[in-house]
Amino acid sequence: MENIISLTINGIDVSVDRGTSILEAAKKINIRIPTLCYHEDLCVAGNCRVCVVEAEGYRTLIASCATPCEQGMKIKTNTPKVRNARRDLIALLVSEHNTQCTTCYRSTNCELQALASEYNIDNDIYMSILKPEHLRIDKSSWSIEKDDSKCVRCQRCVRTCSELQHVNAITVAHKGKDMKISTFMDLPMNEVVCVNCGQCVIHCPTGALTERRYYDDIWNAIGDEKKKVIINTAPSVRVAIGEMLGYGPGASVTGKMVSALKQIGFNMVLDTNYTADLTIIEEGNELLMRLKKALVNKEEVALPMITSCSPGWVKFIEHMYPDKLAHLSTCKSPQQMFGALSKTYLAEKMGIEPENIVSVAAMPCAAKKFEANRPEMKSSGYQDIDAGLTTREIGHMIKQAGVDFKELIDSDFDSLMGDSTGAAVIFGATGGVMEAALRTAYEIITGRDVPFEKLNITPVRGLEGIKEAGILIDNCLPEWNFLEGVELKVAVAHGLKNARIIMEQIEAGTSPYHFIEVMACPGGCIGGGGQPIPTNDDVRKKRIKAIYDEDAGKPIRKSHENPEIKKIYEEFLVDGPLGHMSHKLLHTHYTKRNRY
Amino acid sequence: MPHTKELVEKLVDTYGRSRESMLPILQDIQRTEHYVSDDAMVEIAKQLDISTADVYGKATFYSFIDTVPRGKYVIRVCKTIVCEMHNKSGIIETLENLLKIKIGETTLNRKFSLLYTNCLGWCHMGPAMLINDEVFTDLTPERVREIIAIYKNKN
Ligand code: SF4
Ligand code: SF4
Ligand code: SF4
Ligand code: FES
Ligand code: FES
Fold first, then answer.
1. Which value does ipTM take for this structure?
2. Which of A140, A184, A194 to mutate to test the pocket of ligand 2 (most atoms within 8 A of CB)?
3. Residue A470: what pLDDT?
4. What domains can you pick out in chain A, each with its CATH number?
C-alpha cells in the first residue's frame, strides 16, 4: 500500500502521509477550512460538520477533519455548495444559541461569533429555539462557570476532561435535541469531581464554559482609599498576557505588565516568583528531611515526595488517591505562601494593617480561585489571598483601564517580595519546579553546581508527557554522607492523564522515584486553564521558550541565592526552613475527597 | 443502600468489570428495579472504576433506561408524525384522564408511568404504544380504556 497520498485541494497539488486528514492536508498548503468541534489537542469528533468540503465523485459533502486523504482526491473547500451548507449549519447553531455577544465574556475571542460573522449570518433564517431551562448559569464553583445557553455541543470540554485530564467530571447526557453537557445527575459543578483545572474552559470555543470572574471586586477595592491592593504575578503570566494585548505567542512582556498593573492602580506590584524561590527552599529541605528519615533513621516516610504547587493536581489526588496524600509535599503553592506572608511579614515591614490589605494573585490558572478559598488558607488570620485572577481577567482589566499596553515603558517589580531568580521563572513550564529544586538541593548536598551545562537540566524540559532524570550524588558534604553514591531519581508529569500513570505506579509499589513534579495542565502553567485562548502545542512551545529565555537572562539562577530570600530567613522566618514560623505560614494539609 | 450494592456486585460477577459490561448491567437493573438510581450508578462507577458522570451519560442516552423512578408499567406512546396524524393526542388525553397523571409522570401507587417515545415501527397500524415490552396498535380511546382496565387489575 502506498504510504504517500497525493491529492489536489482547490487545484493545488499536495502530498501527505497516509492517515492525514483533509483538514491537515489543507493546512499544509495554507488553506484554512473553518472548524468548530475540532481541536488539535483532542481526538476527532466530527460532530459539527462546519468543516465540510466538496470532493469530486462524492455524492455528499464530507467533514474534512474526520476524513483521511485518499489517492487522487480532488477537493474543493470554498464552492457555493460548501459555503451554503456551512452557512446553514452555523445559522442553525445560532438559532439555538443565547446570542448575547454584547455582554459575553468571550466576545471577540469566540469561535462561533467569528464563524457567524465570517458567514454573514445577519438575519434570523431560523426561529430561535433557545431553551429557557438552559438559561440557568451554574455559578456554584469558585473556579468554573457553566452556561448551557451558549453551548454548541461540540463536546470539546468532555473530550478534554476525559482524554487530557482523566477526570471525567462532565459527560454528554441525553441525546438528539435534548443532548447537553452535564455532570453526574446534573449536579452543580462544586459537588462533583471537577478539579477546577479550567482545561475545558480553554478548549471551549464559546462562552459556555468560563472562569468565574472576580475583577469587579478588585476594581472596587482599588477604588477604596482605605485599602492597599497588592498583586503578585505568576511566572507564566508574563509570557502569555501579551497575546491578549496585541503580541503574538511567546512574547515576554514582564516590564510592560508591571507598568500596566501600576497604572491601573495596584498599590504594589510584586512577584509570585519570590515565593516560588521560597517554595524551593522549603520543599528542597523537606525532600532532604524525608530522605534522611528514610535512609538514616529508617523511619516510615512517604516517598516519592510529590510537588503540591498545582491546585488542580492537589484536588485530583484528593479525589482519586485519598490514601496517598502523605506523598504530597506539605508546602503551600507560591500563591498561598505569598498570601500568608503579604498579611504578616509584608504588612509588618510596610507598616500596613493586614485587614486593609487586599492580596490579589495574577495566575495562569482557574484552580487558584478554589485554592484561595480553601477554608484552611487563613494562616495570616485573614483570608490569605483575596482573589486569584486569571491571565485573561488581568488582560481584560488592562483593556478596561484604557492602557495603551504596547506603548508602555518597562518597570521593575516593587520590593519587598519582588526579587526573584531564574529558578523561579521556570516554575511556569513543565519540569521547571524540578529543575529549580535540583539546582538548590544538589548544591546543599554537595556544595557544587548541578552537573549540567549552564545549570540547564535539559532532561526535565520539553513537552513529553512523563520525563525522567537521574543524578548521581557523590563527594557529599559531611552532613549528607548518607546520600553518597545514591542516584537521585526524579520524574516530571504534566496533564492529569500522566499524573494518573505516576500514581498507579505508586499504588502498585513500583515507583522508582524519590521526587516527582506534577502539574495539572498540559505544558505546565504556561498551558494553564486561565491562559489566553487559543492554547495548543505550538503556542505552548513558544511560551516555554520565552520562559527559558527569561531564566537564561537572569543574573541569579538559583533560588537559595535570592537576596530577599536570605533576608526573610534572617528577619522573619528566624527558625529556618521547616521551622516553626514556616510551618505556621508556609505549610498546609490536605483533605480526603470522594472518587465516585 | 446495601441492596443496591449487592445487586450491582452480583451483576458485575456475571458480566465482568470491563467498560463494555456497563450496558448489560444497566439493563438488568432497569428490568428489576424499573429505574437506575443514583446510588446504583455510583456503585457501577466504583465497580467498573469509571466516573459517575460516564455512567450517567450512558444511562441517559438510552430511552429505555430510566434515571428517575418509574411505575411497574411504563406506557410509552409514539409521538412521531404518522401516529401524530392518527389522533395520538386523543390517546394521550384518554390516558391522562384514566391515570390522573400528565405525560412524564408516575401514579402515586407507582403502578403506571406515562411517557412519549419515538417511532416504534408500527406506523402502518398507528397510533401505537408500548406497555413495558408489549405493543398495542390501532389504538382508539375505547381500546385504551379496555387495555388500562386489564392492567389495573394486574399485580
Ligand atoms: S458565546 Fe460567542 S456567540 Fe455566544 S454570546 Fe458569547 S461571544 Fe456571542
Ligand atoms: S475544570 Fe478540569 S476537571 Fe473540571 S470539568 Fe473542566 S476539565 Fe474537567
Ligand atoms: S461547553 Fe463549550 S466545549 Fe463543551 S460542548 Fe459546549 S461549546 Fe463545546
Ligand atoms: S470541525 Fe470537522 S466536524 Fe466539526
Ligand atoms: S410514527 Fe408511530 S409507530 Fe411510527
1. 0.91
2. A194
3. 96
4. 4-78 (3.10.20.740), 92-211 (3.30.70.20), 215-274+336-407 (3.40.50.1780), 284-332+419-586 (3.40.950.10)
